[in-house]
Every structure is written in structure tokens, then in C-alpha cells.
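Obj.: predict assembly geometry.
Materials: sequence records (below).
Method: joint structure prediction, all chains together.
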Amino acid sequence: MSGKYTVSYEVPYYECDVNATMKISSMIAIIIKVSEEQSDYLNRGSDFVHQFGVTWILTQYEVFLSRLPKVGETILVSTQATSYNKFFCYRNFWIETKEGEELVRVESIFALMNYTTRKISSVTEEIIAPFESEKITKIKRAPKIPALNQAESLPFRVRFYDIDSNHHVNNSVYFNWIIECLDYNFLTTYEPAYINIRFDKEVEYGNLIESQYEIISDDDRMKTLHAIKIGQTKYCEAEIDWKKR
Amino acid sequence: MSGKYTVSYEVPYYECDVNATMKISSMIAIIIKVSEEQSDYLNRGSDFVHQFGVTWILTQYEVFLSRLPKVGETILVSTQATSYNKFFCYRNFWIETKEGEELVRVESIFALMNYTTRKISSVTEEIIAPFESEKITKIKRAPKIPALNQAESLPFRVRFYDIDSNHHVNNSVYFNWIIECLDYNFLTTYEPAYINIRFDKEVEYGNLIESQYEIISDDDRMKTLHAIKIGQTKYCEAEIDWKKR
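Observations (raw C-alpha cells):
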């Protein structure tokens, strides 16, 4: 497929939890790295983009999981910028076994933010052309995330080590706060089958955040809803459908 | 050098902090992985060791740093089991540039713990022979870590994601709790030059730990002392000498 970029990756033990499968936060960190590598490869890395006074922000992911990568497993991580419109870029990721079995598919929405105004900036040909993605007029949106009704919550401090070398709280870190709300029994019984997460605002070093959650279970399904808040302001929201391990 | 095992590693952005240098916790996680790889390579991996009812525990590190690895840098990570006596195994690690410049040297002390009694078990030829390390009678100890006088502290919950696929709180995680006590200004002004850390007991999932710290600064030096405690019980202690970045 034109414009698809793939790297091989061996899953290290420290990116896996007690289930010996990959932490969601580590999986997200890896796929972002692969998209940065593609951008560098196409000479559209962060230095190139920053000269226009803009930076990439990630607004939403949908993650479809058939199973999580296992400790020691060699996986193929691919990405492709599939399409874009005036303000949004749509990028897919795939995690596959060496034999080509799809384990995870991610559909993501990126946008360019102006450093000074902090507003979304329109996508320019200069930045997007080398990715060979399709120009579309339609604005695609992921499904709306249901609001929490009876939320419980855990507090977290945003740590120094939560900020990466790009000077941002990495999107992957939000999953540390989300997952930690669910207990040992839950997390060793269930694994995620579908994740829908939306990033509204970026938390900063030193912030004290509340990770709200609600577990919705009935005969047929196990679902959790999540919101990352500071005071009444929502920074991130997510829903996760779970299946038995 | 006989018995030395080396792997090449490219430092990813998400294992670096805002200084664009490697997090100490990530550096420790990597070196442990390399020693596990050597053990697997010599058919002395965890499955082999576990059949004798014992498991490796790491009791102490001394880390000597000339500089931290940088984001995107390809480093060579080497390890060698240098010597052992009746109860302790001494293992060194080195992190070097591709050109052979030594960035970090680590001297560590491992022991075998009996699963049932939780006591130190003597080192057997069967387990140690393939590493070609020297049998010694002397018991080497790292320098004693000074006690804290006027400690401040921050509380941390041991998180689900702090437990790795070996079902333990990874030694590297203690550095997350230690480093977080120092503030942004400190951590962007100084980098570690020497770390001496000792693990006394293992914390467990759900524990609420106190990360105690004390900053000792005078004209010539910047030193921090650390202790990880639950109640009055010390689980880990460390001292770090810092130098200007």
C-alpha cells in the first residue's frame, strides 16, 4: 500500500503488565513513535512542521483489539496517513504478528495547532503532500463518548517523568491514569476489545488531576467510562469495551 | 572479554524526559532486560532458575554516570557477571556510544532467594557456571548510604502498571518515586553523576509508600538522600550525587 510505513518491534518485559501482555500506554507510545519515524523519513519531522509555527496534536483515537501483543513477541507496527480535510488528518495504525494476523487497529485524528494562538490551523499541502494521503471534504468523527453518571475517581499528580522529550504529557500517560482506576481482579479478568478516547485539553506538569470512572456491566457486556478532569473542566474522556481474557 | 554480552539499542523519545535524556527508570529497565537476555542465551533464564525453587533478586546498584544517553542515540548496552561468592553475584553493566565512549557504568549485586522461605539461597555451580564469572571468597559491599536527617516526603500508590510481567514491582519503578520528589527546576538544572541504591524489601501492588528525600547542598556539591518507606519500615534507600547539566 502506498504511503504505509512499517517497523518490526520486539515487546520488552517492562512494557507488559502481570498478564504478560502489553500495557495500553506502552502500545500507544510505540505507535506514536512509528508515526514520528515516518514523518522524519519523509522530511516532515517536528523541526519541519515547527517552522510554520504549528505542531501536531492528537485529538481522538479508536482502538480495535483482537488481542494484546505478548511479552517477547515480535510485532509489526504500521502506520498510514489515509486522508485529510481542511483541518483534520486521519491516520491509521496496525499491529500485526510476523505472520500477518492483525492484533490491533487504531484510527486516529490529528490536527495542527498554532503555537501562539493555540487554535487549530489549516492543513497545508507543504506539510501533508509526502504522506500521499487522500484529500477529502467530509469531516469524519469517531462515535460520541457517553457521559459518566455515577463516577468514582482517583487523584493523580502529573509527574516530571510524565512529560516526554517533546515537552508534552504524552497521550500514552492518560492510559496510566485510566487503567489504574480498575482493580487487580478486573484487569486480570478482562482485556480491552475497543477503546474510544478523546483529548480535549492538555494537562501540565504539577497538575493534580481526577481520573473519574464508571463500570457498566450487564449480562452481555462489560464497559467502562472514563474522564480526566481538573475541577469541573474535562481534559480527556474515554470508553472501553472489555472482553474476558 | 569472555562472558560479556552486548546489545545495541536506540533510545526512544518516550524513555526520555524534558531534558531529552534518558529517564533513570528506563535506563535501569533496559539493563535488566539485557541481563535477562544473556541468561536466556546461556539457557539460564528464569524457567531454569525457578526449577530449583529460587529466583534472582537485585539487592544493590552503584551507577557511575559521565552523561545520560540522549533521545534517538544508538547506545551499546553490555553486561557481565564478573564474580560470585557463596551468596552473592556481582554483575557489571556498561552503556557506551557506538564509538566506544563509556557513558554509564553500573556495579550490581544479585542474590538467589528461595520462593518458600523468602531467604537468600546459596549460589550453585549449575546456575552460575555458564556465565564464566570468577569465584571469590570476599564479600564486596557498596558504600553505606547515609541516613536522612530532615526528610520531607511524597506519597505514592503502587500501581497495577508498576508490576511487570515477572509479577514484581520492577526495580526501575523505585526511581520514578525517587525522582518525582525533586522539582522541575532541580531536574532541568542537574543530572545524576553517581547513584547508590539498596533494595531491602519489595513493595507490592496497592501499597501506599512514602518517598522520603533530603537535599544536601553546599559550595562544592549537590547530593540527595532518599528512602522508600511504608510506616516505619524501610524498603529501599538511595543517595544521588548531582552535577550541573
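Conclusions so far: The first strand of chain A starts at residue 4 and ends at 10.
To do: check interface contacts against the pulldown list.
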